[in-house]
Amino acid sequence: MVLDNVKIIGTSHIAPQSLKEVKRAIIETKPHILALELDRGRLNALMSNKRGRRVPISEIGLKGYIFYLLGSYLQRKIGDKIGIMPGAEMRLAIKMAKKHRIKVALIDRDIRVTLRRLSQAIGWREKLNFIVDLIRGVLFGRQELERLGLSTIDLTKVPEEDIIERLIKRVRERYPGAYLALIEERNQIMANRIIDLALRDPDKRILVIVGAGHKQGIEEAIERATSTELAVAG
Predict the structure, then answer these.
(1) Which residues contact residue 18 at a Cβ distance below 8 angstroms, ignoring those fewer than 6 apart?
(2) Of 15, 87, 21, 11, which Cα lies nearest the Cα of 50?
(3) Any domain includes 147
(4) Longest Cα–Cα distance in the chain
(5) Residue 115 in domain
(6) Containing structural domain, residue 114
(7) pLDDT digits 0-9 by tens, 85-139
(8) pTM to 2 decimal places
């Protein structure tokens, strides 16, 4: 990554370790701008401690709606298990930004657009893969985790990079449409917005806080974009 005024950290939305890392990064970096993996709707829901307005199926499609419900349920269950509310690290970042008068930039795509894209992108093969993986998980949960090399994951910590890469590769292979809508497109959008922030205020330090699964993809997208610009300028 060639943007000297930008630092990116990857977090887990349900890991207590992320709270410490966010706090340390803000204190050490002393950013002028905090760029967060949020959109306006998710920010409002996060800071009001409410689940947010239930998005109508007509706005996002049935598949996106089902994913939204499942994802929210799983995050809450895991959060309850380890004693942390999903998104706590983002809430901490916003509170620290207010305390230290740091500008906050929301860089993620509107969740309704993402879920609508998900509904459009998922094909019949991915739906079949989901059913197969769900049955495997229910019947052979531990064996499946061991087979995928994920049995040692500690949910209280941000996963190691090799585990993240393994998970993303699995999603890309089994669910290419979901990968496109949930990861690749958002990585590009967030990278573009980070570049805009950095070029608009080149003298200001920018700290970017995103989910660990997005960090590498965003950095690669920034590097591609800035390398292309340098090549054209040269």
Answers:
(1) 11, 12, 88, 89, 158
(2) 87
(3) no
(4) 58
(5) yes
(6) 6-122+157-233
(7) 888 999 999 999 999 999 999 999 999 999 999 999 998 899 898 888 878 776 6
(8) 0.86
In a domain, 60, yes or no: yes
Q: What is the pLDDT of residues 25-79, one digit of tens each?
A: 999 999 999 999 999 989 988 888 655 556 667 777 877 778 777 777 777 777 6
Q: Give a yes or no: residue 19 inside a domain.
A: yes
Cα torsion through 197, 200, 203, 209, rounded to 10: 0
Q: What amino acid is encoded at 125 in this protein?
A: R
Read off the tokens for 17: 């370790």
Provide the number of structural domains found in the chain. Answer: 1
